[in-house]
UniProtKB/TrEMBL annotation, chain A:
Gene Ontology MF term list: hydrolase activity
Catalytic activity: Endohydrolysis of (1->4)-alpha-D-glucosidic linkages in polysaccharides containing three or more (1->4)-alpha-linked D-glucose units
InterPro entries in the cross-refs: A-amylase-like, GH, GH13_cat_dom, Glyco_hydro_b
Full protein name: alpha-amylase
Record keyword Iron present: no
Record family assignment: Belongs to the glycosyl hydrolase 13 family.
Enzyme's top EC category: hydrolase
Cofactor(s) listed: Ca(2+)
Assigned keywords, A-Z: Calcium, Carbohydrate metabolism, Glycosidase, Hydrolase, Metal-binding, Signal
Pfam families per record: Alpha-amylase (PF00128)
E.C. no: 3.2.1.1
Residues in Glycosyl hydrolase family 13 catalytic domain copies: 45-543
Automatic annotation (TrEMBL), chain B:
Name assigned to this protein: Carbohydrate porin
Biased composition (Low complexity): 22-41, 53-73
Species name: Nannocystis bainbridge
InterPro entries, alphabetized: Porin_LamB, Porin_LamB_sf
Gene3D superfamilies according to UniProt: Porin, LamB type
Residue ranges, compositional bias (Basic and acidic residues): 87-101
Pfam families reported in the protein's UniProt record: LamB (PF02264)
Region spans: Disordered: 22-112
Signal sequence extent: 1-23
Feature: compositional bias, Pro residues: 74-86
Keywords per UniProt: Signal
Length: 653, 542
């Protein structure tokens, strides 16, 4: 009543006042399908907090000298740098989770975005909804797509298990830490070798985390949601996440091979595992995350920790999200999942349309809130097996190249050949997200440096010589990244030769670059003149130019088990042609051997390619040097150690 | 208790000069704020207690003798006594003909003098909770302001040999809480004035001052707000009053608010292998604040006039460097800001009747106020782009037993960062206080205000449709009072009872943190009793 009376005065004041104006919020977002073919995408992964600080207004409690704390990057900062990104040539941004996080836990901040506390609010460190919309809009205006990172396996450190029933979160450290994993554990003792019990993150117990008193077991440990706004321990949202019953409450996973731990254990760090088999939880995640697309018009999800969640959840989540967004005009919505695992079959199991049993489907359909569920899952997966078996084993450690061929040969089997309904529209095996490194693993150059340091061939060589070798290794990996079938994903800073070790060292500030390899003084921030930036830019340009690199089928034409002094040791070659690439043709050849020149022939047998005899192929990365295909399609090439060729028919150059 | 009577013999000449100006200025009279007023980022409603504020006296033009219609420069000590005040003192005593007029600007007279402003209030809400400022705008109703007092001691001399006057002013100020409220035998104490002023310094009309002082012009009493110029400064200034009455004043001061923006100390080994550590100021920059003010009064009729003011400020901080980790330094850029403003006012010279209109625009670091560090900067770490726009209208009218006092402003503040956020706002208030006096000693005032604020945070007004939050609040007060000095909106001292009704809309409530009573209450009642006085202080007559 009083409100209404007051409102009567409003127009006069408004007239006098003028209005604050948000750039993007005046009208609801009209969702549209911006993606044409996700194989056209080149993803650039950005850790928002570390990319650029564009808005001092959202800086709060920064500690830029501590890698585990907020550094101040934000959505405006990324938007301000779209020129830089566009210059590089990438056309898709993968950004950190956007939702409100636990501020800090155990002296580590939620700067990465994976510690959700409120799925309905933006992470204020990154900006407000207006900023996020502005970023997405600006990206779309440049024909860029935006992929938002999400987590459905767990929430942040929302509660602790009051194991000793004293009402406060206790931490206990004791023991020698020498007991090997898997050895018998005395009842009542911690499962870890080192006894490190924190009531935020106790070890997994299949019965649920238990309470103990001095008199013995005291039943399931109560969970306590602390309320401490300063550290961001506030009321979880949506409201369903305030209910202890929606969490599995079994403690921290320590044995990832135990399916029960994998699916129901808390994620290390005290991240509370959600019972994702519940209909209300499934619906809450769909509602929460689909809303961010409805609010921003973003184009896809990168989904965290998918292997820790039941398949039935992914079937529900992906299908309901597609249906909901498609009904509003957003088609070809792309969802790729992260299973941090080298096992190809496991990773592929989240994209492959393996129809569950009737019984399972019936149970899954018991949520009864939409069209009957099918076996459809994710559009794609983050290609971790390739990260390990190709970029680490071959391009860093010079392992035999036959493992590349072997891995790729299983793509159709492991990842599936049927695109989910209403999905990105391309079969998963053609749409895997390739990457050299990311925010969860050390950067390529970090381990490559170890390799070079141990290489006898570099003993006594100058630091500059070693670093130039590192550059060759990185550029060879980049050539593989940009030419392999699938979607390349470049981790920010790779183009500037960033070289940080494991998390959080691999999450460097983009505004504080390293000196380039072989140099001693750092370039300006966001420099576009460096050798690897130029190389990456060139590769992306060719990827855009040559349809075969985007949509062509893959045929491995040379791989080898040999890694020694043999003539073809380290050689790997594949063609991209056919498929939906028309007549376009590309041949990519690598020598991953780190000591000697290698040839595409062994014991007199030369490589045979699909290009016709007499065809002239131009190495567009090698000074446009020409090579002519011999009789029978043979092509005998010699490559220096750690080098590659991108061969294109002369008429296509 | 008026303690500045010795100067009365000197006051007349000065009053003859000041009266018209004071008439225009005084209505816009009293309090200042110890914090930097509206040019700072907004006072958030979430503050648990009102910020300490100080105040000053309000000259009532009709109570001030007007010896001359045309303003003239300040003169030598007046040979004639101050004319009889319009309101007779209750207790005519030995302290001069005008012992109880708190609105007369103190003149200059040899000797020590005392002046004061003060307000004390005891009150709370209808449930007994402690009273607290309930306004959402930076400057709102002062009925629920916290306790505050200034005690001013000054020494004044006339130097026959040079014809110059000097005035040394020392003003201490006390903010809430006070001992009898919380039982803590301590005080929040500040020095608000500590300066020496020399008038007619060799040249008639020329004045200098140096020291620390409140340096300000006209205010809006109802809002406790000096909208055009209100500096808390330490430095010096020069002024010259032309024969036409036009006054030109320039000042420059330095300050260093306690903030890492200005100063950073680091620990280093002492020299010559001494033990321990020494603190070194690696960043130690001060802000230069200077101002220029040109004012003129055009007399109209016997006592009225029109007053015009042009005003400007320059704020500047030099560059510096700070240590961001051991032996790693970061350059801190220089920054600057400007203020430009104007005021036009008209006054009758009778019974404090006046109207004032001001407009002020501040940019860069000046938009944050003189005693603040800028926040939410641009990516280049400067405040470029920050601004504050302020337009105010205030006035008073009195006739017979009736009076109407009013104030209003519209304010727009944007910080330097690109994105809209909580501190970016538009706000405004209209406040009126009609009052009626009975039997010269008592009266009743009603106060009504409407305030609104729009902040740079989005609310979902409809699904997927967001707008900046827009909050509105209404307040209505009843204030019966007694004023021994007689009728007059600016007549003090005053003892009063206060009832203040506050009505908040949902958006206003949303400004407060969860579980704050202001977040829960759409309607609130404040009840209190208090006193307010001012007399003999220089803070309000410059």
């Amino acid at each position: 009543m009083h409100d209404r009376r007051l409102l009567a005065f409003a127009p006069a004041l408004l007239l006098a006042a003028g209005c604050l104006h948000f750039d993007t919020l005046d009208e609801p977002v009209k969702m549209a399908t911006h993606a044409k073919d996700w194989r056209e995408a080149v993803i650039y992964q950005v850790l928002i907090d570390r990319f650029d600080d564009g808005d001092d207004g959202n800086n709060n409690l920064l500690d830029r000298e501590n890698m585990a704390r907020y550094h101040g990057g934000d959505w405006i900062g990324l938007e301000n740098r779209l020129d830089y990104i566009q210059e590089l040539g990438v056309n898709t941004l993968w950004i950190s989770p956007v939702i409100k996080n636990i501020e800090t836990d155990a002296n580590v901040d939620g700067y990465h975005g994976y510690w959700a506390v409120d799925l309905t609010q933006p992470n204020a460190h990154f900006g407000n909804l207006d900023d996020l919309r502005s970023l997405v809009r600006a990206a779309h205006e440049r024909d860029m797509l935006v992929v938002i990172d999400i987590v459905a396996n767990h929430m942040g450190q929302l509660f602790f298990y009051d194991m000793n029933l004293n009402g406060v979160p206790d931490i206990l450290l004791q023991g020698t830490g020498t007991r090997p994993q898997g050895t018998p554990v005395p009842p009542g003792f911690d499962q870890s070798g080192f006894t490190h019990i924190t009531e935020y993150d106790p070890d997994f117990n299949p019965l649920g985390v238990q309470a103990f008193t001095s008199l013995g077991p005291a039943g399931p440990a109560p969970v306590v949601f602390p309320f401490d706004p300063k550290s961001g321990h506030v009321t979880p949202m949506p409201a369903i996440f305030q209910n202890p019953e929606v969490y599995n409450r079994k403690g921290r996973t320590f044995n990832y091979d135990d399916p029960q731990q994998l699916l129901t254990g808390d994620f290390p760090g005290g991240l509370k595992d959600v019972n994702t088999t519940r209909c209300d939880v499934k619906q809450a995640f769909v509602d929460s995350y689909a809303r961010w697309i409805e609010l921003t018009d973003a184009d896809g999800f990168r989904i965290d920790t998918v292997k820790h969640v039941e398949y039935e959840f992914w079937r529900y989540f992906t299908q309901r999200v597609r249906q909901r967004l498609a009904a509003q005009g957003k088609n070809k919505f792309f969802m790729f999942g992260e299973a941090f695992d080298g096992r190809d079959e496991l990773v592929g199991s989240f994209t492959k349309n393996d129809l569950p049993s009737d019984e399972e489907l019936a149970r899954e359909n018991s949520c009864d809130d939409g069209p009957k569920l099918t076996g459809d899952q994710l559009d794609s997966a983050f290609y971790f097996p390739q990260h390990y078996q190709v970029f680490r084993d071959v391009f860093q450690d010079a392992a035999s190249t036959d493992r590349i061929a072997g891995l790729w040969a299983n793509k159709t089997t492991n990842y599936g050949t049927v695109a989910p309904k209403d999905s990105a529209g391309v079969a998963p095996h053609k749409l895997l997200v390739n990457f050299i490194d990311n925010h969860d693993v050390a950067r390529f150059l970090y381990f490559a440096r170890e390799r070079v340091e141990k290489d006898p061939a570099f003993a006594g060589k100058s630091l500059r010589d070693k670093e130039l070798r590192l550059r060759s290794m990185l550029q060879n990996a980049l050539l593989m990244l940009m030419t392999a079938e699938g979607i390349p994903c470049l981790y920010y800073g790779t183009e500037l030769e960033y070289r940080g070790g494991n998390d959080p060292s691999n999450r460097e500030d983009m505004w504080r670059p390293y000196p380039y390899l072989g140099e001693t003084t750092p370039p300006p921030a966001f420099d576009t003149t460096g050798a690897t930036f130029a190389f990456t830019k060139k590769l992306i340009a060719y990827r855009k130019k040559l349809a075969a690199l985007r949509r062509g089928d893959t045929k491995v034409v040379w791989s080898t088990t040999r890694t020694g002094d043999e003539s073809d040791a380290g050689i790997f070659a594949f063609e991209r042609a056919g498929g939906e690439a028309g007549s376009n043709y590309v041949l990519v050849v690598f020598n991953t051997h780190q000591s000697h020149d290698s040839r595409t022939q062994f014991e007199g047998a030369a490589m045979t390619v699909s290009a016709p005899a007499g065809a002239v192929l131009v190495d567009v990365l090698g000074g446009n040097k020409k090579y002519t295909v011999g009789a029978g399609g043979t092509l005998d090439l010699t490559l220096p150690p750690v080098s590659g060729m991108l061969l294109v028919p002369q008429q296509d150059v | 208790m008026r303690c500045d009577f010795p100067l009365l013999s000197l006051a007349v000449a000065l009053l003859g000069v000041v009266a018209p100006a004071a008439a225009a200025q005084s209505p816009a009279s009293p309090p200042t704020t110890s914090q930097p007023t509206a040019s700072t980022p907004p006072v958030t409603p979430a503050e648990p207690e009102p910020a300490p504020e100080d105040s000053s006296a309000v000259p009532a033009p009709d109570a001030v003798p007007t010896a001359s219609a045309a303003p003239t420069p300040a003169e030598a000590p007046p040979p004639t006594p101050v004319p009889e005040p319009a309101v007779k003192p209750d207790k005519p005593g030995s302290r001069g003909p005008h012992p109880h007029d708190p609105n007369s600007p103190p003149g200059l007279a040899d000797g020590f003098h005392f002046g004061s402003y003060g307000r004390v209030i005891a009150g709370g809400d209808s449930t007994g909770r402690a009273g607290r400022n309930g306004d959402i705008v930076a400057r709102g109703s002062r009925l629920d302001e916290a306790n505050y007092a200034e005690l001013e001691l000054r020494r004044e001399d006339y130097w026959k040999s040079t014809g110059a006057y000097t005035r040394i002013v020392a003003t201490t100020a006390f903010a809430t809480p006070i001992f009898h409220y919380n039982g803590q035998f301590s005080a929040a104490l500040a020095i608000r004035n500590l300066y020496l002023e020399v008038r007619n310094a060799g040249v008639k009309g020329l004045s200098f001052w140096a020291g620390s002082r409140m340096y300000r012009g006209d205010d809006i009493y109802l809002l406790d707000f000096w909208p055009l110029d209100n500096l808390n400064t330490i430095g010096g200034g020069v002024g010259y009053t032309f024969k036409t009455g036009t006054e030109l004043k320039f000042h420059a001061g330095l300050n260093q608010p306690t903030d890492p923006y200005y100063r950073q100390t680091i620990l280093r080994p002492p020299a010559y292998n001494q033990f321990g550590s020494a603190e070194v100021a690696i960043l130690d920059r001060q802000k230069l604040v200077s101002s220029l003010k040109l004012s003129h009064v055009w007399p109209i009729g016997d006592s009225g006039g029109v007053k015009g003011i042009l005003y400007g400020e320059l704020h500047y901080v030099p560059e510096g460097q700070r240590e961001i980790e051991s032996k790693v330094y970061e350059a801190v850029p220089k920054d600057k800001g400007f203020v430009g403003g104007a005021q036009v006012g008209a006054f009758t010279g009778k019974r404090s009747t006046y109207v004032n209109l001001t407009a002020r625009f501040a940019s860069g670091i000046a938009a944050y106020g003189e005693l603040n560090a800028p926040r939410q900067l641009r990516p280049d770490r400067t405040a470029t782009g920050a601004h504050e726009l302020l337009v105010t209208l205030s006035g008073n009218w009195e006739r017979g037993p009736f009076g109407l006092l009013m104030g209003s402003y519209y304010r727009q503040f944007r910080n330097a960062s690109r994105s809209l956020d909580w501190d970016d706002l538009n706000e405004g208030i209209v406040i009126v206080r009609p009052q009626v006096w009975f039997a010269k000693i008592a009266g009743v005032a009603l106060e009504a205000s409407y305030q609104a604020q729009q902040r740079g945070v989005a609310t979902e007004s409809e699904p997927n449709l967001f707008k900046p939050v827009f909050a509105q609040m209404g307040r209505f007060g009843v204030i019966p009072f007694i004023t021994p000095g007689g009728p007059g909106a600016f007549q003090r001292p005053q003892i009063r009872l206060i009832y203040l009704l506050t009505v908040r809309d949902g958006a206003t409530r949303s400004f407060y943190p969860a579980d704050d009573v202001f977040a829960r209450r759409g309607v609130d009642h404040f009840i209190g009793v208090g006193a307010e006085w001012w007399f003999g202080s220089t803070s309000y007559f410059r």
